[in-house]
């Protein structure tokens, strides 16, 4: 069982603190590393892959420090975010080269197995420069899998993929997680993480903002105060009826609409139609305000 431990870990680049005192444990199965751009996801993955040393704290695999530890490198595969691959090589040459770098006894057989896993056998003889974005992603994945690592790290693997490629990658990662591998993938898109990860770690501005299964993270996000703009047949009557409830934190009349801040998302979602019906007020439009992922993240960090 491969378990990654990040303990009081920080990483800075000059004055920029990219990862700030983060502690988390990533075990077998699929973990999503969620955070907006610049949150420090790539930096954390770089440390987990042994490409970067932590500036402070520790990053270990099954208790062994990762930095400059060849035994650990043999157990870790990385699919980096950057596009750049060796465009002049064929897919097969690229994966075989990776197998050779790992010193595998039969690089050809290992490459064939990894290429088969990502369903690239038909295209393996073509140059990588001619591949689509999704194919490049798959051949990078084959290179990361060629030494059959217990840990697979993927930095924004869904970027630029079309829906079909996305489904293929989801199925592939699911099978790796089910086989007991420790799979960590980063994303700034909530829905990607929701579809795939059993466990979610949230990074915001270098800090560890939340951790848990997807439902817990979702609850944290939905329990925050929500603002709505409502238009109805009688905004004043609706405001008077809403303000009496504990979940209504603030109500204000704003031109032809009503602004409401509610503290409990689910309670308010049930309350609003009931209150409107009882008061004989017809609801025309209910629009959530400021539902952007950035605002959700900043709420998580403040708390
Ligand atoms: N080599 C570097 N030198 C200086 N600053 C860096 C370097 N790499 C990253 N940073 C900074 O560290 C912070 C975290 O960057 P990082 O790439 O780890 O975040 P990220 O969550 O992966 O974001 P993105 O999804 O945009 O890649 C950012 O402020 C970034 O500008």
TrEMBL record:
Keywords: ATP-binding, Nucleotide-binding, Transport. GO terms for molecular function: ATP binding; ATP hydrolysis activity. Gene3D superfamilies: P-loop containing nucleotide triphosphate hydrolases (3.40.50.300). InterPro entries: AAA+_ATPase, ABC_transporter-like_ATP-bd, ABC_transporter-like_CS, P-loop_NTPase. Residues 1-230 form the ABC transporter domain. SMART domains: AAA. Belongs to the ABC transporter superfamily. This is ABC transporter ATP-binding protein. It comes from Xylanimonas protaetiae. The lineage of its organism: Bacteria, Bacillati, Actinomycetota, Actinomycetes, Micrococcales.
């Amino acid at each position: 069982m491969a378990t990654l431990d990040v303990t009081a870990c920080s990483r800075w680049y000059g004055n920029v603190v990219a990862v700030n005192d983060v502690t988390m444990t990533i075990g077998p199965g699929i973990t999503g590393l969620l955070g907006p751009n610049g949150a420090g996801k790539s930096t954390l993955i770089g440390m987990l892959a042994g490409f970067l040393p932590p500036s402070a704290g520790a990053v270990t695999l099954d208790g062994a420090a990762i930095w400059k530890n060849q035994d650990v490198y043999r157990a870790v595969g990385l699919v980096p975010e950057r596009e750049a691959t060796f465009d002049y090589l064929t897919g097969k040459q690229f994966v075989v080269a990776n197998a050779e770098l790992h010193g595998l006894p039969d690089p050809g057989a290992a490459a064939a197995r990894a290429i088969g896993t990502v369903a690239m056998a038909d295209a393996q003889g073509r140059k990588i420069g001619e591949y689509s974005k999704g194919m490049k992603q798959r051949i990078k994945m084959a290179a990361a899998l060629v030494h059959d690592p217990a840990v697979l790290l993927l930095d924004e693997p869904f970027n630029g993929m079309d829906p079909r490629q996305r489904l293929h990658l989801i199925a592939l990662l699911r099978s790796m997680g089910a086989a007991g591998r420790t799979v960590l993938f980063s994303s700034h898109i909530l829905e990607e993480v929701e579809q795939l990860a059993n466990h979610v770690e949230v990074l915001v501005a270098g800090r560890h903002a939340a951790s848990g299964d997807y439902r817990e993270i979702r609850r944290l996000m939905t329990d925050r105060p929500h603002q709505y703009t409502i238009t109805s047949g009688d905004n004043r009557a609706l405001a008077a009826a809403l303000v009496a409830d504990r979940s209504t934190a603030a109500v204000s009349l704003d031109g032809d609409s009503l602004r409401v801040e509610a503290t409990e998302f689910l309670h308010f979602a049930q309350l609003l139609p009931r209150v409107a019906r009882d008061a004989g007020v017809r609801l025309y439009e209910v629009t959530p305000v400021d539902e952007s992922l950035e605002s959700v993240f900043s709420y998580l960090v403040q708390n």
